[in-house]
Amino acid sequence: GAVVSQHPSRVICKSGTSVKIECRSLDFQATTMFWYRQFPKQSLMLMATSNEGSKATYEQGVEKDKFLINHASLTLSTLTVTSAHPEDSSFYICSAAPATEAFFGQGTRLTVV
Amino acid sequence: GDSVTQMEGPVTLSEEAFLTINCTYTATGYPSLFWYVQYPGEGLQLLLKATKADDKGSNKGFEATYRKETTSFHLEKGSVQVSDSAVYFCALTRNTGGFKTIFGAGTRLFVKA
Predict the structure, then answer these.
(1) Taking the CA of residue A16 as centre, how many other CA atoms within 13 Å lie in the half-sphere pointing to its CB?
(2) Site from A43, A49, A92 to mutate, B interface, most B CB atoms within 10 angstroms
(3) For residue range A27-83, what is the model confidence (pLDDT) as tens digits?
(4) A23: which chain B residues are within 8 Å (Cβ-Cβ)?
């Protein structure tokens, strides 16, 4: 199956700083990638759809200025959590779908202290 | 809109017991159906899938059959192991109006030795 690589797997940052998370499709091109957030013991919540070469589409209630998404190439999408606060601490997962099946990154555990 | 409903957990079983996790869906058209497994602190791994009615997905002793007449995709395993302890997500994908993955809430499984 296709491989999606996400980096870093864990990050701890101080309040007020920004953190960038990378999502790469290793063996296919992805014009669209998806970013999810997962709260403890809950399902995945779609945050936004990242579109190569154009603006991301954000789900209702997700702050686009807080969660900046850039999809500059066919194999890389980045999520930047700006001015992070403790309530942004969560598990973030990206995915890409080369056909009718989505493949997921390993996830990033963000802790804001 | 499209949705996935799966049985609430946690489900606690003894080793070698039979496992069923129920999943039903609501969707227009002909979605593909998936079961994903998430181990603690990790991303989602595809467990099995079925892309059309009456297809049976199977992997590592787990099985699920795409039942269009009952709109179900129940996960079963004949004899669970302690290592099967994880969270299981039922999901569907559709590709009308843009690709989207819809997840169930997840079912946590504990297997006791």
Answers:
(1) 0
(2) A43
(3) 999 889 999 999 988 899 999 999 888 899 999 999 999 999 999 899 999 999 999
(4) none
